[in-house]
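Record 1 of the preview.
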Amino acid sequence: MNKMLLGLLAVVGGFALPATADAAARAIATADVNLRAGPSTRYPAVDVVGGGDRVRVYGCLENRSWCDVGYDGQRGWMSSNYLAYAGGPRRYTGERAIRAIEAPVISFSIGGYWDDHYRARRFYRERDRYDGIYGPRYRRDRDRIEDRDRFDDRDDVRRERRAERRRELRQEERRDDRREFRQERRDDVRIERRDERRERIEEQPEPIVPLYRVN
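->
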């Protein structure tokens, strides 16, 4: 009997664990936001998570302000303000989303984290420059810093959107140039054909008109 009960619990546990992982995997980004190499906007950007893209949450800081996430085969940190989770008919954002997916509380250490994920990155050689950003002073002033970080992230998103708009404008200009070129080419072809018709007409011999003698 005990063996059967233990077996049943093992099966139930086997289903329960993937459900939590699946919930974490369904967290989504609410806007375009930088994925960073640590829990602050002062860490270098690793990638840009697109608004609406899914991320896997591996854990969050104790104050739920930043979370360690996986995105497109990469690992990095995102502000929880840009995370959302849909549980049934309800949608949770920010810290409520973190509680809904039951993300574990974790800490951050630049040494181990960067060794595991960023050895091939250029900024890895400069980690002494970033070491200490997340420390006692950071945690003591985290409310003030997180408020500033949220504005920094918004500035990053605005800059990225402006850059995307500039790229779109350049593409539109190139399309306009191609249309103008094609139109000019068509005009040139029409002019050439018209000139050819005129030349053929001019080259035709004049008709011979017979002369009649009038008595």
